[in-house]
Design goal:
Layout (H helix, E strand, L loop, with lengths): L7 H4 L4 E4 L4 E3 L2 E3 L2 E4 L2 E3 L2 E3 L2 E4 L4 E8 L1 E4 L2 E14 L4 E13 L4 E8 L7 H6 L2
Parallel strand pairs: 1-4, 2-5, 3-6, 4-7, 5-8, 6-8, 7-9, 8-10, 9-10, 10-11, 11-12
């Protein structure tokens, strides 16, 4: 009678996964909570939360997420529903689809970029699969 499904925002609030420097992951990662990567990922990453790619990180693959901060190296396709922050130490190569973009001076942003104002299909649909 009063069975309500828990909401995503409260269920994973304040929880962050972390992969430390020196760790190499080959394969795909799916996370409901926020994620910080300071190691290396060769594979795809999908999350309904935020990913932070640290300054020593290297990612080669595809990313689908709500928000992202990139300080390290990224090669591949990235779809960010809301905001992509590209820090001065970042090096991005590939295809970028975003809602909003912030690029600090000094960043190496060698990518095609599509700023989507309507995510009724695409990224939001991709993140619903999680």
């Amino acid at each position: 009678m009063f069975n309500k499904a828990p909401k995503f925002s409260t269920e994973h609030l304040g929880k962050t996964n972390r992969i430390v420097e020196g760790t190499i992951i080959t394969g795909d990662i799916t996370s409901l909570a926020d994620f910080r990567l300071d190691g290396e990922l060769i594979g795809n990453f999908t999350s309904k939360g935020k990913i932070v790619i640290g300054p020593a990180s290297k990612v080669k693959g595809d990313i689908i997420c709500q928000n992202a901060d990139i300080e390290g190296e990224f090669t591949g396709k990235i779809k960010v529903v809301d905001l992509l922050n590209v820090k001065a130490t970042a090096k991005i190569t590939g295809e970028v689809t975003i809602g909003k973009l912030s690029v600090e001076p000094g960043a190496d942003f060698s990518a095609t970029c599509i700023m989507a104002t309507d995510f009724k299909s695409g990224v939001k649909e991709d993140t619903k699969k999680i």
